[in-house]
Write a structure and sequence with these properties.
Number of helices: 5
Distance between the termini: 31 Å
Largest sheet: none
Mean pLDDT: 83
Number of strands: 0
Helix content: over 70%
Order of helices and strands: HHHHH
Structural class: mainly alpha
Shape: elongated
Strand content: under 5%
Low-confidence stretches: none
């Protein structure tokens, strides 16, 4: 199911999702731990798996969207 958001609605949704929460920090710490194990084992698959569970996609999307619409507050 896809939702059709206007630019304003999507920007507000991104502002709400960009706040750092304890849950995001815990998932990031787990991803760092898994990536460290993958580096020690020299395993590309484990490192890719750690990248998949890391909660970094929303900030990357926020940065790209902010650059696209020239919103400096969203970029920061």
């Amino acid at each position: 199911m896809t939702a059709n958001y206007s630019t304003r609605e999507y920007r507000e949704k991104l502002y709400d999702d960009l706040h750092v929460r304890l849950r995001d920090t815990a998932i990031l710490m787990c991803a760092i731990f898994i990536a460290s194990i993958g580096l020690n084992m020299n395993s590309t698959a484990v490192i890719i798996g750690a990248m998949l569970i890391s909660p970094l996609m929303t900030p990357i999307v926020g940065l790209g969207f902010g650059l696209a619409i020239f919103d400096t507050r969203l970029i920061k």
